[in-house]
Amino acid sequence: LPGLLAECGSLQSEEEEEEEEEAAEPGPAAAAAAEQRREERLRRFRELHMKRYEACKLNSQEVVEEDKRLKLPPNWEAKKARLEWELQVQEKKKECAARGEDYERVKLLEISAEDAERWERKKKKKNPDLGFSDYAAAQLRQYQRLTRQIKPDLEQYEKLKEQHGDALYPTSDSLLHGTHVPSKDGVDRMVADLEKQIEKREKYSRRRPYNDDADIDYINERNAKFNQKAERFYGKYTAEIKQNLERGTAV
User: Fold this and answer.
1) Co-location of 94 and 65 in the same domain
2) CA torsion 104→108→109→112, rounded to 10°?
3) Is a pLDDT exceeding 70 seen at residue 27?
4) What does the pLDDT read at residue 21?
5) What is the residue-wise DSSP string for 198-213?
6) Which domain holds residue 112?
7) Which domain-ending residue is among 42, 71, 100?
8) pLDDT at 7
9) CA distance 7 to 171
10) For residues 207 and 105, what is the distance between their CA atoms, to the nearest angstrom?
């Protein structure tokens, strides 16, 4: 639009110059030249009008598209990319089935060695929580999480190996009880880790047991939670009023 306005300004200045030239050149030749210039100006004005119409049309289309984008959910682009990827996978599976090939083998052939190694490293780093199955599985998961945090001291290991020799690697005949004295740093690390576990365990939320003998002063679960919160914050201020209402002695 700024370019169109500048071009319109140049046309107006050209018109003023041509009017001055027409006043200075009388005769039929001047009239024909003026008519020709008039036709040229009209043609340029029509072109400018068409350009302005196209600019307004494109602007309106862009406003409509932007309004559509704003009304879409925030994760629409990710969902769209996911759907397009799934469609491509389905098309490749159909092509492989038509050629009598195994899609998994074809997919593995297209994966580079660097991508395969990177995905394997990501899989090893992951420790998916499959939910509670039994206490043994939960204990194993806790043990694996704690052992991943251990950073071995290789210098201390080399010193112990030089000091104890083959006795550092016990066998079935070795007597282990009382032979190892932990260092002060090791004890401090263990205490810090236990304190961290206790602090994390205190943040766990437990499910409150249901009391069958409690008074029913609610109409649904949501109202029960609201009453519990109100009692927690304002119970000590309204205890006497509640007792009077229950006894029927309220004024």
Assistant:
1) no
2) 160
3) no
4) 52
5) HHHHHT---PPPP-TT
6) 76-122
7) 71
8) 56
9) 96
10) 49
